[in-house]
Design a protein that fits this description.
single chain; alpha+beta; Topoisomerase I, Chain A, domain 4; Gyrase A, domain 2; 2 domains; 4 helices; 6 strands; elongated; Ribosome-recycling factor
Length: about 190
């Protein structure tokens, strides 16, 4: 393993951490509706649990309403039940084959709670990135110990990994600030 491999490996893993964090932020609902909110809701389909998006069309009717159109008529009731029992606080209503999911308006207290959830998710992402930095630095120190690189190369590697870490953490901070603004917007 070389210094370039260490940097490339750390960069790839940090990019995955940011993608994971973005996915986590999408699950935190705001006052506006978006189809991704229902991605985590699972419904039983012929004995196996599947996401709603794999058994129905999920789309927006307007800014506060999601429509779910099951591909099979028999799936309407199980989908409605799965949405109601999820921890999203949604109350779907059925109009024949179409299921409408109105997004309730968020109270000020609930908005503050959601900003705390966003900050905690951001801190978890920062911790994951710092752990990746530590792993990269440990690999560089191991190479130095095995006399495969010089002390200058090890120092340069540690500095490069630190710069990468700083860049990724500033990206996480930017995402947290944007999501907080979105949650607090009335």
């Amino acid at each position: 393993m070389s210094i370039a491999d260490i940097k490339k490996n750390a960069e790839a893993k940090m990019a995955k951490s940011i993608e994971s964090f973005k996915n986590e932020l999408q699950k935190i609902r705001t006052g506006r509706a978006h189809p991704g909110i229902l991605d985590q809701v699972q419904v039983e389909y012929y004995g196996s649990m599947l996401p709603i998006s794999q058994v129905a069309n999920v789309s927006l009717i307007d800014a506060r309403t999601i429509s779910v159109q099951p591909w099979e008529k028999s799936m309407a009731k199980p989908i409605e039940k799965a949405i109601r029992e999820s921890d999203l606080g949604l109350n779907p209503s059925s109009l024949g084959e179409l299921i409408r999911v109105p997004m309730p308006a968020l109270t000020e207290e609930r908005r503050r709670d959601l900003t705390k959830v966003v900050r905690n998710a951001g801190e978890d992402a920062r911790i994951a990135v710092r752990n990746l930095r530590r792993d990269g630095n440990d690999q560089a120190k191991r190479l130095l110990k095995d006399k495969l690189i010089s002390e200058d190369e090890e120092r340069r590697s540690i500095d490069d990994v630190q710069k990468l870490t700083d860049r990724v953490i500033s990206e996480i901070d930017r995402l947290v600030a944007a999501k907080e603004a979105e949650v607090l917007a009335v």
